[in-house]
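Q&A log
Question type: sequence-to-structure
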Amino acid sequence: MSTKSRTRSKTRLSRALGIALTPKAARYLEKRPYAPGEHGRTKRKTDSDYAVRLREKQRLRAQYGIREAQLKIAFEEARRAQGLTGENLVEILETRLDALLVRSAIARTTAQARQMIVHRHILIDGQLVDRPSFRVKPGQLIHVKAKSEGMEPFQVAAAGGHVDVLPKLPPYLEVEIDKLQARLVRRPKRIEIPVTCEVQLVVEYYAAR
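Response status: OK
Response body:
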């Protein structure tokens, strides 16, 4: 899929779910705050409980850009952990390497973060990591490989090019953007994570399956 059609499909999905999945989609939603398609402007019929829960699950999945199987694995881990399952789930997803690259404004979107990781530009504590799903532990340092720092996407990031279009830096991250590095200082708390989701509905969706 070309970059242009990928952007278009992200914008369409953003409108369908009612959340901005990229900075570009956020601008588009300001102009057209309704669902796509010919019936987008008309009031939706009342959705069933199942449809409401399904949409909330899809919203969470889309914000992290993950597959259903990945979300299900994270849910099972969240269910086994102490505390509230829904909050655990978002906290687990937030420690993914691709998510933290976006939060720290090293990457502008999840797709760009994945590309950086898969193309082997990202190190954790000096070790190369090429899995976007890698779970970062508190205390670990995320940084860009020295040889890659001169590349245009990293130069843009180091100059603070993404800071204004992304949510404010959350308190669980320490970032030196000019050095292209970020440290996860502690486990994220649900209340601090800039994700739009009624997590209890996601829990109910899986509990009913």
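Response note: The mean pLDDT is 89.
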